Amino acid sequence: MAKRKQVQPRDGVERAFGDAMRKARAKNKISQMGLFATTGLNRTFISELERGLQGPSLHTLLRIAKGIGVHPSSLIQDTLDSPFFVLPDAGRIPRNRE
User: Fold this and answer.
1) Which one of 3, 54, 67, 82 has the lowest number of neighbouring Cβ atoms within 10 Å?
2) HSE on the CB side for 8, CA within 13 Å?
3) 3 belongs to a structural domain
4) Are 38 and 97 in contact (CB under 8 A)?
5) Residue 62: per-residue pLDDT
6) Are 63 and 39 in contact (CB under 8 A)?
7) Alpha helix positions (H), the chain
8) Host domain of residue 74
């Protein structure tokens, strides 16, 4: 059976976070294997995060920030500042109407 090719997102929150994460990791000269060693996160999962195929939970975000040696808020700010950052369509977000 032929392998299915993964389609990487062109933009979005996950892609923007992955971009910010990769840049912070590279700036601090930490490899994906080094991040695995400090966080215990699977290297394949780290790769998927950086490519925007997965989105981190809050717990994972905190582990990544600690493993890279940056404050979690800097990863979030860099995500917001990324050229790939696009908010989801607000029309699709369920709203609590009381």
Assistant:
1) 3
2) 12
3) no
4) no
5) 98
6) yes
7) 13-27, 32-39, 43-50, 58-68, 72-81
8) 13-81
**Into how many domains does the chain fold?**
1
DSSP string, 69-93: TS-HHHHHHHHHHSTT--PPPGGGS
pTM of structure: 0.80
In this structure, what token pair is assigned to residue 9?
């997102």
Q: In the structure encoding, which two tokens stand for residue 36, read together?
A: 């695995």
| Residue 8 placed within a domain | no
> Alpha-carbon torsion 23, 27, 33, 36, what sign?
negative
Q: Tokens standing for 32?
A: 């994906």
**CB within 8 Å of 31: residues ≥ 6 apart:** 25
| pLDDT tens for each residue of 56-98 | 999 999 999 999 999 999 999 999 999 988 876 654 444 455 4
| Displacement of CA 14 from its chain's centroid (Å) | 5
Residue 40 lies in a domain: yes
The CA-atom distances, in angstroms, between 92 and each of 29, 35, 42, 49, 60 are: 39, 35, 32, 23, 25
